[in-house]
Amino acid sequence: MKLFIILLYALAGFVNTFGCCYMMRFVYRWKIRSFALFSLLMSLPTLLWALVPALMGRAVPGIDEHLMAAVYIPVIWLAVTDRSVRSLAASASGYIFAAYISIIMTYPVNLLISLFKGDGRLQSIVIMLSGSVVSLLLVIFIGRIARSSISEPMSVGNVIFIGLLAFFTGDLLTMSVPDATSQMSSNEMINAAAMSLLALAFIVISVLMNVKLTESRYYSTLNSVNESYLNSQKDYYEMKQHSDTEIRRIRHDMKNHLICIRDLAAKGKYEELESYIDEISSAVSEAASLIHTGSGIIDAIVNEKAALAKKAHVRFEWEGTVSGLNISAVDSCTLVSNLLDNALEACDKVDVDKRYILLSFRRSEHFILMSCENSAARVVELSDGRPLSTKSNKFEHGFGLENIERCVKKYGGHLDLSSYEGENSAVFIAEAVFPLEMD
Fold this sequence. Notes:
Elements: H1 2-27, H2 35-41, H3 43-55, H4 65-80, H5 85-113, H6 120-149, H7 156-176, H8 186-252, H9 254-266, H10 270-287, H11 296-311, E1 315-319, H12 329-347, E2 356-363, E3 367-376, E4 382-383, E5 386-387, H13 401-410, E6 414-421, E7 426-435
Parallel strand pairs: 1-2
Antiparallel strand pairs: 2-3, 3-7, 4-5, 6-7
Helix pairs in contact: 1-2, 1-3, 1-5, 1-6, 4-5, 5-6, 5-7, 5-8, 6-8, 7-8, 8-10, 8-11, 8-12, 9-10, 11-12, 12-13
């Protein structure tokens, strides 16, 4: 019997951890690694919690949820997440949600199990484990709804709200009714089960509303990005039409230009000849100045930003193509727009003669590097590769950085930021490395 109880403890540890990781992955939409195998390994602490006292001839202790949370949350954060502050919030919220839903569900389970007689200690463990299993099924149900609704990670605020919602609702319930494993009368069991089901309904409805709110916010952002892209595309085609018209005009007049050049050369008017050729060259360069990166979407964005740079007296240069890079239209717009908007904002704080932006795309056998370099008013202070979030230096590159990083990580890439003092001004460089899909 004792061995059976120990195995039930191990199963409870697996179920709670798996429920937490499932919540993070499919409701919060956080990227985590190999959580099924990890959940299996994380059943070992709960197993040891029961096994050690049993080997010493003592009674198997009950599970202290608060102590388990103090152990499991840091391990989940370190083992399967990216170890950021955001993922720490998700780890804590996911575990708290899974654990407290499990506690809430022990009351209806207790009512059902009370119909059968059995060993009191075993009955308590079965109640605990059954509550965990029902909690996991509920998390999977919510996750399936969320998977069909949203594809972007929830905000940290929404994640924390869900965890606190389960925590306070579960605490209020446990303060209002006796412990589920204690002796209760039939009426007390019925009342406790009814209250727990109401609490559960409240939590589920709140979480689903949160999911719908995230979905609504995502599509609102999507519409905004699409509108920005369409405007950029319209401006791009207007510039292209103007460029094509200018090229046709120059080509039409080329015969006359050649006659003038021959006449000036024959008369030895070399200064006038040089000036005339420079004028024609300038007209040709201006007409053929459209940027071609290999992606119509990125062409539209880059040409629009290049036009803005010209108006702001910012020297804009580019090199390379993005051939082979497979990124959606929305993410291309978000990534390139934010990179160039940040660069333009930084240049606005620099003396006119020092303003420049260099956008480059370089390709190797397995990767594409997208780099945006620009002048800045001062060297940007970085911590762990990211700008420090203090008022003194939360400038140029703070806005939109999260959107840039989200797009890069979405495609398995990596974002590097650097800043240093250049010859004429401070320099800021944002480099996004994307793996190429192999055939």
